[in-house]
Amino acid sequence: MTQYNFGSIFPKDTRSRRFEFFYGSNNSSLIPAPYSWDQPKTHTFYANQGVTVKEAFNLLEGRAVQKSLLNAEKEPYKAWLQLDLGQKEPNGNFKLDQYHENYGYDVKKVLESLPIKEAFDPSKADWLLKAVQKGNQYPVTMQKDGKEETMYVEANPKFKSLNVYDAQMRTVKTNDLLLSNSMANEPDESKKKARMKPETPQVPKASKGKRI
Fold first, then answer.
1. Which pTM value belongs to this model?
2. Torsion angle of alpha carbons 69, 73, 90, 93, nearest 10°?
3. What is the pLDDT of residues 74-116, one digit of tens each?
4. Looking at the structure, do residues 82 and 119 belong to the same domain, yes or no?
5. Is the backbone peptide bond immediately before 32 cis, with ω within 30 degrees of 0?
6. Could you tell me if residue 209 is inside a domain?
7. Could you tell me the residue range of the domain that residue 74 belongs to?
8. Boundary of a domain, candidates 103, 126, 159
């Protein structure tokens, strides 16, 4: 059986990633330049797994990839694949976690739950979905505090969510995005304050008695 070997190391500067490809007779390897082969992260992917070079790299970066697979009865199904980079199997490969479509992770629904501009643009939504399914860390335009910011998203099937990073690749909490977006959609400042301030019931004034 033909097998393909891919190697990768994590670059220290995530904002200036550059990669070089090296090809052998029966295998392909990728490694970030200017690093060497001293301590690469390696994993063997077999041809029948249908993993592309880009998907293999994304898996070795720790991201999840959605694939169409066959079960023991040759019936097709979809699942998210993700390598556990902290655990090696006896054969030298990383442990491969699999999240079946019945697990209930709907990445399209999760994308649409966040204030992502591209998720609601018919000309870009499908491209965004496919990029995330392939394990890419994809740039998007996000609404935060009433302003547009460039952020990066990637699939997180284990927790049925997305990993979100700002332009400096710092983690952004999705709850903060949802909260800031809901506040930005309030009509005006007075209604925002009224929403946060509990109402105090009005006590009717006592009427004056009639003098005789």
1. 0.71
2. -10
3. 899 999 999 998 999 998 889 999 999 999 999 999 999 999 9
4. no
5. no
6. no
7. 3-103
8. 103
